[in-house]
Amino acid sequence: MEGSNMKQKRLKRRSVLTVLLASSLVYVSACSSDSGKPIDKGSEESPKAQEGQKAREITIFTRTGPDTSDYVKEQGKEFTKLTGIKVNITEQGASNYFTNMTNQLIGGTDTFDLATTNNTYVAPLAEAGAIEPYDEYIKKFDPNYDWKDVAFQYKYKDKTVAMPYNLSIHLFYYRSDLISNPPQTWEEFAAEAKKWTKSKNPASPTAYGASWTAMSGSEQPKVFYSMMWSFGGEIAKDGKAGVGSAGAIKAGDLWQSMVKDEVIPKDTPNWGYSNVFDALKTGTIAMAAPFWSAAYTELKKSDSPYKDKIKIGLIPGEKQADGNILRTPLFQSWTLIMNKNAKNKEDAAKFVEFMTSKEGAMREAKLGGLPIRYSVLSDPSLQPREFYDTVLETLKVAKDEPLVPYYLKQHEIMNTALSGIMTGTVKPDAALKSAEKDLQALIDGSKK
User: Which ranges are annotated Basic and acidic residues under compositional bias (predicted)?
Assistant: First the structure.
């Protein structure tokens, strides 16, 4: 007869899978090292050495888009040239990508070896046992893997469960022709927004002073955390939820006050990345914060008449007793995860090592991506230095979300609270204390 401990473990795993699948549907609908050694033409990895052997190939499931499939495709072409291992790409549009990826991995598919994902799904999939850890492969291919050169790791239960390849980080964007002294604190940010809102200042060339991605879905909680952390709030610490703390409520009050003061567009609660980007591009707003690093390159390539006037810097923060400014921007990464049931794990791991090595990171940068290695970000050949230097400075104080198996449910709880704050239907204090209570229940439930 099955023991009680075994029963509990099975029930817990089943619960994780249920939450993962259910939450992914809600979530989507709401919104190496330096290998340093070129492959020798006579080695077993080269195309020449593979002549007469069975063709080797791997398949990667990825979301269509410049931050995912485009980079993977180009890296795959180079990998094939050097190794002869064919890289097949299976693409899907953004709308149901994560749901499909999750369903396939949980269902035990072996139709792809690797998949691309952001941090959102890594811990739930690892908890469900659906993805393969990389640690043994890294030891085999590069025992001296330089982790200090990588911006951050995806460790879950002491195992490396995802390998990052393209950074996303929150920056501060502002019109330098209007703002000569960028605000350093969030209070200064709110005051500056009033100066460049036409209803407050008829001489303002911009309709509104600021905006951010406040639409319920993938980005809203992440944007809030970059402000909340500055005020000393925490998602959770030492097993205790902290989104109802004084610091978190202060951030919520600032959000709601800027809505009520009408210094941000009225429909900001429905704004995602593209809305904020277009508002900067067309001169509708004077500032955007927190806003993703990817916008910088896109703006500079655009036909915006303001593209040379839009500058970047570290996001504002909160002044401390010693006079220093506490800034805590959020950062994350697109990653490669390996299917637990992959058919070609060894070759898949080789591609991951290839793409995340120093050479791979430099290729990523030249393709227009934001590499995950400090040594590449610091390379003087990468221009403009304004961008890369700002990213490096931001990384010194940046923070990523904790990898937890209940991430999707946590995100759902925060979306509910923050949407209430932005639409003015709930006071920040009540919304965030309710969210804290629900999050604590999640944390306690995960320990059983």
Answer: 37-55
